Please model this.
Amino acid sequence: MKKKFNKNYLEKYSRQIVLKDIGILGQKKISLSKILIIGLGGLGCPAVDYLCRAGVGQVGLVDFDKVSLSNIHRQGMYNSQDVGKLKVDVIYTKIKKIDPDIKIIKHKAKITNKNFDKIAKKYDVIIDGTDNFRTKFLLNEGSLKLKKFFISGSISRFDGHIFTFDFKNKNEPCLKCFYQELPPDDVLNCESDGILGPVAGVVGNLQAIEAIKKICHIGKNLSSNILILNLKDLKFRKVKFKKKKNCIC
Ligand SMILES: [Zn+2]
Model:
């Protein structure tokens, strides 16, 4: 959606526009960006919240789930009154309060290889907030095919992983280059393994930062690296990996 760069708009985003790396030009790029967030849980909530506050033009929301009481300790877009409501509907209402001009498209659906192209094709950036590797592999392959900028996050206990891939770049590896096969423990199960709430916030916010950097062409994205966060011991490390021969990418 086209934003009006009037006095009110400039005041709203003034602390961001004053950043030399962003400025009016960067803010304009953000206002024209289209971001798809798949999975509105622990990662999707902080990512969508900060991206909408940053002034993105359009967001797509993909989730088929309803808010449960056990979501609230880490999924900051929901409160106790939202239990039982569809996540896409609750987030739609919250975003409209942050920015009434933002264009929001709701997809109350489970993402599959049949609906991915249709849902994802109009977006610049795809953010993966899902909790299982089968879906992450599907999003990786779909984003690769459509040459999208793909940001994948995972969380468990006190730990987080982030990947970003620019599939417009032919030399870019993909998620499958790193894992090769589906990890035996397919589901990152917050129910059985547990998760410290703020860990989700850290990783989801890093995904939002990677998206804004890409949109504004600032800094360095992770590309060809995985960022591994151990928040119990506060250790962050990047591990470089290469494109594998005979991979799908
Ligand atoms: Zn690959």
Summary: The two ends are 33 Å apart (CA to CA). Residues 173-174, 176-177, 243-244, 247-249 surround zinc ion (CB under 6 Å). Residues 6 and 81 are 36 Å apart (CA to CA). The longest strand covers residues 149-156.
